[in-house]
Amino acid sequence: MNYADLFRVTLPETALEVAALLVLVVDLGFLRKATLKMRLAVAALLGVAGCGAALWLVMQQGIGGLNYQSTGELLLTTGGFTAVAQVGILALTALTLLLLIDADFTRHVSEFVAVLLMSATGGLLIAAAQDLLVIFVGLELLSLGLYILTAFAKGSGKSAEAALKYYLFGGMSAAFLLFGFSYFYGLTGSTNLVEIQHAIFWSGPSPLFYVAWILVVAGLGFKVAAVPFHLWAPDSYEGAPAPAAAFIASVSKAASFALLLTIFRGDLMIVINRQIPENEIERLITECVTSRTHLIEVMLVIAAASMVVGNLAALAQSSVRRLLAYSAIAHAGYMLLGVCLLPHSIGAQGSASQAVGIDVLADAIAHVFDCQRAVLYYILTYGLTTIGAFGVVGVVERATGSDKMDAFLGLHKRNPVLAAVLLVLFLSLAGIPPLVGFWAKFNLFAAVLGVSAGPIPFALVALAVALSAVSLYYYLQVLKRAYVMQGADDTPIKAHPVTMVVLVAIAAAVVVLGCFPALLQGWIESFVR
């Protein structure tokens, strides 16, 4: 590895860092006496330009990566799966910045945008990382920025409380994660993900291996707000400024699930990269079934608990922000179904066949890629929809001073366009056809059933479908207030023209991608195949 190769592979991250510095220089050096609206607009547009430049650089990178010259171990990857995750992170970051133009929670706009871009840089590193040390650096860069963004509304006590809780829970999760990583290094003598999986595959799992996995699951469970590591999410979503909450709910979750996909597809990478001989395939399948079964069972329990707790707790919420937080917990459970069944799929396909060989393995790999694409599709569409939802909540909150459900009373009269956007986004989150949320759930559940046949996957998918019907009820509670119930105040709710254009564009994208799901599916398949 030399610095020229490192610079080439990390050009998208470099573009975001340059944009962050440029925002600070322009705002603090040239726009000190400008109005707050002008400073917000300039800072947001510079940030969007940085995201655009980074996105172009991601698209220019082919499939490859950065290796240690001494050992050949992979440090960072480019192209393929990584490119899809990074494009999603950058697009969601740009949308968050555009919604910032109408904000009024701080005068330190350049600092907010700079921290947000640096957090997005951490997300890009996480999506590309293949080494435990790089993963931890990326997670900390992302997390530290999120703690600061959550506390940015200095006049709000809820913001300070949310940031403190987020920081304390985040510190504990980082400790668990680092302990788990250290045990993996002690067991295998390597920090490379593929090398770790390879060493454990050939030597067999030890009791310390299971301890390390439990610690890593606890650390990453916090990042995706999965039960029982979800306690920070409702307070953080409620107390953080609306753009920060949208960023946490979309970009942070996209980066974290990209990392989970990278970790849980380790068995597949062994098969592809290590050229396992045909006479070893039966042993591979046996190992995948026996040594990973308990881990998969733990993850499936976490997924089921997240779906149940998230949806049932959302029923009792009067705050729309907290409702979206518990909804995010439930959606994390749906996505975990696809993630945690990835490594088990090879064993499931092999054990269901009488002939164990190359054909069985190829079929299993095809199913793994189907599941991986379905999870990526879900991540991107959920992130898009939830940013729009927080955008609507932010507009209503600025006009009424509250995010309670009753603040949405009579919204269809006060701002018909905003009410229509809310209708589209909430129905999509509930999975109503023909919106994109329906196809996200349909593709994911179909992929889960295709990867692993049997009563347990079927029961989990049935539970997810039933709880999606429950989610429709609490989304309709908000829509009922917007469209059916009358409010005492009929004062029109106005929003910045840019904010309205962005929200309408998000709602239009949700409708178009729902009517033509092959548009996004085909784009993802062009990278992940």
Features:
529 residues, mainly alpha, 22 helices
Would you give an account of this structure?
The chain has 529 residues and is mainly α. It has one domain. Helix content is 78%, strand content 2%. Helix 7 packs across helix 8. It is globular. About 4% of the residues have low confidence.
Please render the helix and strand layout as text:
Blueprint: H1 3-9, H2 11-30, H3 36-60, E1 64-67, E2 74-78, H4 80-99, H5 109-128, H6 132-150, H7 157-188, H8 193-203, H9 207-223, H10 232-239, H11 242-264, H12 266-274, H13 281-314, H14 320-340, H15 344-351, H16 358-400, H17 411-414, H18 416-430, H19 436-451, H20 455-483, H21 497-515, H22 518-527
Antiparallel strand pairs: 1-2
Helix pairs in contact: 2-3, 2-5, 3-4, 3-5, 4-5, 4-11, 4-16, 5-6, 5-11, 6-7, 6-11, 7-8, 7-9, 7-10, 8-12, 10-11, 10-14, 11-14, 11-16, 13-14, 13-15, 13-20, 14-16, 14-19, 14-20, 15-16, 16-18, 16-19, 16-21, 16-22, 18-20, 18-21, 19-21
